[in-house]
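Q: A reviewer asked whether we had any structural model of the full assembly, not just the individual parts. We don't, so I'm hoping you can provide one. Inputs are below.
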Amino acid sequence: MAFIDYYKVLGIDKSASTEDIKKVYRKLARKHHPDLNPNDKQSNLVFQQINEANEVLSDPEKRKKYDEYGENWKNADQFEEARRQQAAGGGRAQDFGGSGGGDFGGGDFSDFFGSLFGNQGRSSQSRDVKFKGQDYRAELRVPLREAFTTHQQTLTLNDKKVRITIPAGIADGQVIKLKGHGSAGVNGGPAGDLFITFVIDPDAVFKRVGDDLFITIEVDLYTAVLGGEVTVETLGSAVKLKVKPELQNNTKVRLKGKGFPVYKKDGEFGDLIVTYNIKMPTGLTEKQKELFRELSKP
Amino acid sequence: MQKEYINITEFCSSHHINAAFVVALANEGLIDITVIESSSKISEEQLSDLERYTRWQYEMGLDPEAIIVIRRLLDKMELMKQEINYLHSRLSLYE
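A: Here is a predicted structure for the entire assembly that you could use as a starting point for your response.
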């Protein structure tokens, strides 16, 4: 556990006034606040550090204790004990039991902070007022084919199992809120919520854009020239398609209602867009080549 | 299910904020205040938003006017994120 120089974290001098600290803290908070920098872990970390530095330096009692014992925080308790003994012998007693001011020191504090200030160092607020518990955030990866159907998954959250139903058609990056699955509320307040961000893993065969699915299928040259029938895989079932003669490469066909289910709209589906990729024959025999030569003659 | 409400005076006293701040947020349309038996309350589902705006005020020194600007920009960012996701998936068709 390393010593943290809170003055350095805020970039201020040891003689800085409470007003200067507040100004610098807010300036840095506006830059690094996690709400303004979503999904930026570095900003989140910096914000935790400046929050912690502000928590200590803006509170005169904590700042005094930090200034006095900061680098020797490991020995703070021994120093205090020695002082108490001196006081009992006629010396001057000093109380270091800071209880914290009323503020919003949310977020995690370092081990260093905990060692120096203990639980009392955390902001204390009115005891009989209900507070909503902390929200949790989690990320859940779902393969594209699983996102096609409504299914259930069990998540383990802080050693508790949470069973959730994932509706068919969930989108990549979509966030769903599970009310009351965050941390417990304070003084009987409501529990926080769990926000799950879904990450849909891409599929090797199908590509998804909104509710539409895209697939590329290969058609042999002879079917492309003469016409015929091809079987196309969909996520529901396979369908047979008639291919008209003289098919051009990259021709697209839209199959209505054969795409991805529309989120929370039962029975509604996007479309499946099939792209034909004409596959040239390889390993032709001499006779086949001769026939192609014949065909190429004007 | 019955809606739960939180008394604004209680909220303000526990968070050490002025009730005028909550009223200003309501005036900007960021939260809805409901008057029940002569006391101003907010519904429990707005609690997260109110706590978030209160934190913004404390941590960044933002007034309600700045909060509404940031709220709108964050909403726009969210829409842009969705558009980027859509364009990414379109682009993947050509990869």
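A: Points you may want to mention in the reply: The CA atoms of residues 48 and 77 of chain B lie 20 Å apart. Chain B has a mean pLDDT of 89.
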